[in-house]
Amino acid sequence: MLLVSACSSEQTNTPTGSLPAPHVQLTDLPSESTPSTANPISTDIATTPTAVSTLSSALEGIEIPEKRTHYELNLTLNYYTQYGIVEEIITYTNRSTQVFEELLLSIPPKNYPGSFTLQSMSDASGNPITNYREEGINLHIPLAQPLQPNQTTSLRLNFRLDFPTVEGTFGVSGRQTNLVNWYPYIPPYDETEGWVVHPQQVVNNMVVGEYIVNEVADFDVTLKLTDREELIEVAASAPAMEANGLRSYHLELARSFAFSISDSYFEHEIVQDGVRIHSYVFMEAQHAGEAVTEIAAQALKLFGELYYPYPREMLTIVAADFLHNMEMDGMLMISYGVFDFYNDTPKTNLTILTPHEVSHQWFYSLVGNDQAKEPWLDEALATYHEVLFYQRYHPDLVQWWWDNRINHYTPQGAVNSDIYISGGYESYRDAVYFRGAMFLQEIRDAVGDEAFFAALKDYAISNTYKIATSEDFFDSLAKYSTADLSPILARYFSD
């Protein structure tokens, strides 16, 4: 992979073979009779909270961040010649207590040599900025005047994207163009550590985990297609308003904005509880494209009951033309192989992975975390939400899930590993995803269902729109249980 996926690793060359772990292998599932080494969970969620009637009541008391960064992105895209021209305006407020002499701009497309060309950049007064300093994919931009706390400034950029030919989340495959992490952004600022940016981790030609950390921001995006627009379908993080050949999108309180564009999509949509669940799959997977919306609807219902209703008007599901999965705000990508192997039963990767990716709408999008340093806070939780889904909708397959998803891999490693764990991707997968699910089950067993689900809900609500930490997670647990968790932490966490 050249650009990171939070739910799997991408390869820097064209992948071959079956779907890579952490996902259950498509062609090599152990038998249902495989002995269990992890304790299965009970067959119902006895303490599932009652669904909240309205979003406003569900989110009552949640602090909405003020003076959020605003990204205006105007993209002119030529799909068939594989390039785009972008005008970007970033409006940024210094919400720290520090005085900024410079801003940091991180540019993920620079991970792909030749894919990003900065044509111009200017400050809030329209003065050209040329005296920036490059450091990897980051630009250090000196300010003409120091930016005081609570002061606002802006940057205007014009740049060109030449999409690499790569099967991944940024670039062109044979059947789609993907734009994930496709624009410059200003990273979070930590009062102690400074700008929160991390290097990409590549081991054996595979990127390990996710390295980008984003604050919630607001997005206004326009897209203009310049060639054969009538043949092209656009999947996006938000619904489009179309007029005069221009697609306009507005998305608030999100960590990113993404597109997936193709002339080969079959579309299907259902509506549940006011949420449009929209799938885009390749033509040979039409039936699975319909099925995935039903699975996602079930997941949205369950997680909405556990925490609060999904707060966006649309959830977009895309068949990725590569062999891994990825979550974005309001959108998720699941490998085409998962759709191709769907067999109308819940013993399939589509049923396993859809709830995983849907749960990231809460644990990644709404509740952020540092995915490089503390990836377990979203990936262990997302993996555990798979079994919560089976527990609710397919209780007879809970043991099957443990045997095939977790025990089959005999996972090792510290749950609180970062993406720089020695051993590369498989070590990261085993520790963070698989042992992470085992860890959460043991925590649940130790504190009991009532405290466990109350603590999870408290953690979600208390940290919505924030970047949460492990300390926040355990603080929520401590509110509802006095159980001694030190033996469990000693087994699963490193010092």
Fold and architecture overview:
- With 495 residues, the protein is α+β, with helices and mostly antiparallel strands.
- The protein has a domain at 55-63 and 346-492: Neutral Protease, domain 2 (Orthogonal Bundle), CATH 1.10.390.
- It contains ten helices and 25 strands.
- The strands form seven sheets. Strands 4-7-2-1-14-17-16 form a seven-stranded mixed β-sheet, with no helix packed on it. A five-stranded mixed β-sheet has the order 19-20-21-23-22.
- The radius of gyration is 22 Å and the shape is globular.
- Mean pLDDT is 89; it is low at 1-6 and 11-56.
Brief digest:
With 495 residues, the protein is α+β, with helices and mostly antiparallel strands.
What is the 3D shape?
globular
Low-confidence stretches: 1-6, 11-56
CATH class term of one domain: Mainly Alpha
Q: Determine the fraction of residues in helical runs and give it as a percent range.
A: 25-40%
- CATH architecture identity of one domain: Orthogonal Bundle
Largest beta sheet, briefly? 7 strands, mixed
Rg result: 22 Å
Head-to-tail CA distance between termini: 30 Å
Count of separate DSSP helical elements? 10
Task: Kindly state the number of beta strands.
Answer: 25
Trace the largest sheet across and list its strands. 4-7-2-1-14-17-16
What is the CATH topology classification name of one domain? Neutral Protease, domain 2
